[in-house]
Amino acid sequence: MIIDITIIISTKEKAFLCYNRVKKVFSMKLPIGISTFKEIIEENYIYVDKTKEAFNLTQKGKYYFLSRPRRFGKSLFLDTLKEIFQGNRELFKNLYIYDKYDWIKPILVI
Ligand SMILES: Nc1ncnc2c1ncn2[C@@H]1O[C@H](COP(=O)(O)OP(=O)(O)O)[C@@H](O)[C@H]1O
Ligand SMILES: [Mg+2]
User: Fold this and answer.
1) Quick check: is 41 in a domain?
2) Is the residue at 3 inside a domain?
């Protein structure tokens, strides 16, 4: 993951705040090699919220072809869709889709 950070320092307090935020990001766990959504959430790994894209896919369109190079998050995204279709709402607390998706609607996952 590449993180581009620009810090504009105007006061000592702001600099301290920025420093703490940067420190917090770098002390979080990176989900290296983990493509299981449940594990990422339950073990508190960094997760870039892609549930808005997932939500949009569930609302429109018909067929999708996920074409991305390796390590671009295809497997994790599919696993995220699986959790959504299985209605495992509690995993999505604090994420975009939590209060948008119709969790009651039954979807058969094969
Ligand atoms: N939304 C995301 N937030 C954080 N890490 C992610 C995200 N999507 C993928 N990753 C991480 O990137 C790496 C590659 O993801 P993966 O789904 O295996 O890619 P692919 O199937 O395209 O090769 C894994 O370590 C995974 O945890
Ligand atoms: Mg994969």
Assistant:
1) yes
2) no
Structure letter (DSSP) for residue 89: G
Amino acid at 41: I
Handedness of CA 18, 93, 53, 47 (dihedral sign): positive
Answer yes or no: is 88 within a domain: yes
Distance 90 CA to ligand 2 centre (A): 25
How confident is the model over 62-85, as a mean pLDDT?
Answer: 94
Average pLDDT over every residue of 61-74: 91
Q: What residues pack around ion ligand 2 (CB closer than 5 A)? A: 75
Q: Answer whether residue 71 is part of any domain.
A: yes
Q: Let me know how long the chain is.
A: 110
Q: Whose CA is nearest to atom 12 of ligand 1?
A: 73
Choose which residue among 3, 25, 35 to substitute to test ligand 1 binding: the one with the highest number of ligand atoms within 8 A of its C-beta. 35
Note down the domain range covering 34: 29-99
Domain count for the chain? 1
Whether residue 8 is predicted with pLDDT greater than 70 in this model: the reply is no
Residue with the smallest CA separation from ligand 1 atom 13 is: 71
State the average pLDDT over residues 21-42. 90
* Section 6-33 average pLDDT: 80
